[in-house]
């Protein structure tokens, strides 16, 4: 039995313990996934789980969930602890919120945390986040004028108190959503997830002979911090600048200014000069801005070390209050990903000036294109469904970008059969989009073409959350742009890219997802790779001749 009083761990034991804690977060995530009701969680991976210590700092994160969510969970827990101090938590308590400024930046995401007690002592917290299929108010979209239009806002409240469900809170939630069975099913899946995490942590403490996580938490966070600081020290000291432009909402285009300052083992990101907040749902609250700033840094500089609270101590982020990256309450923020996902491109554009071999060109899935459908099916039941799909990733210094792969989020596409089985919609086409990847020494990943037909007995409400129709994903170091996004109906009309409209039965919606930017001079691409792309249908013979000078 290990010495429970020890404060230091040998590297082998520490690695074993860390892997065990990560497996606890993964098992918690598996419980959420397998017991959830909506395809958003079950098929498209829009969730996360984490294990945190008694101070609310993250120790381990699930490996397959949305990475940025987990960077937010400890911040949300700090708000919970301000509302309910540690001495007021009891076994069986579960606190929840979807407040954008406390949690993940928009109302559809619900964050829960539960205390973990071992032998009568508070030793940690389990946490989970899931994107619900509905949260009331206007359908998920971009065009609300203020937060109150976007749905039900739940302040930090006890969903469970000492194991008893809060009946009044439950009734209030179910009375304000369109698909109550799915919403409650996903909320209870989060409850199950948190309970699994608590059971497995108790087993771990018994197996390891520990009474709490204090010493282990300190050791794991210090190890993660050291790894990130060493990675930052490998970047030359200096000030690096980049900017990104995006479509925004109508005449209000989005402009992001990014300045990265590297000094020793510290890295600071400053977004001074970025667009002001707007009266539409594109605003990214500071929690979300922080998450989508530190995560790309982690991916580029220290991708192999598991993440926990220590991973982010050496990275600081500032954005002007009142900007689109740090809006004042109650700014609308339902589609905050259309702004937050752009940050990876701005950050990598700046880092490319110092460590070009560590970054990728801009991604065609940054920001993601989402289409949201709602109405009544043939049985008279209400449905609310989101089509998750992705453009191509940007290329890197060593390989082509991945086709139809999300980054910096990692939400999946899910099963089209599952999508069709619970909604009166048919997906007629979902295929790679030829010539959509930006030319380069390494080609950008391909986007895709998707065609959806409405088969409902009544008109269906459509909400689009799209960008990249004006500004294509840029290449790096001579690489060219990926293709632009386009969304059209069969008759050639174009629905508003960031607003709500109606589709009638028989309408077909065509969405062309952007490809990623290329990396390096296209003229330096291996002609054999170009020939292979033409043979596979990724690049047309015309584009091979035009962009690469390779005749087929």
Provide a descriptive summary of the structure in words.
- With 552 residues, the chain is α+β, with helices and mostly antiparallel strands.
- It has 12 helices and 19 strands.
- It has helices at residues 11-35, 39-42, 67-83, 167-174, 180-208, 214-233, 286-301, 337-340, 343-351, 416-421, 527-536, 541-548, and strands spanning 47-53, 58-61, 94-97, 109-118, 121-131, 157-161, 164-165, 238-249, 252-263, 266-270, 315-318, 370-376, 382-388, 425-432, 448-454, 460-465, 486-489, 500-503, 508-512.
- The strands form 4 sheets. The chain has a 7-stranded antiparallel beta sheet, with helices on both faces. A 4-stranded mixed beta sheet has the order 8-9-10-11. It has a 4-stranded antiparallel beta sheet with strand order 13-12-16-18, with no helix packed on it.
- A hairpin with a 5-residue loop joins strand 12 and strand 13 (382-388).
- Helix 3 (67-83) packs across helix 7 (286-301) and helix 7 crosses helix 9.
- The longest helix has 29 residues, at 180-208.
- The relative contact order is 0.11.
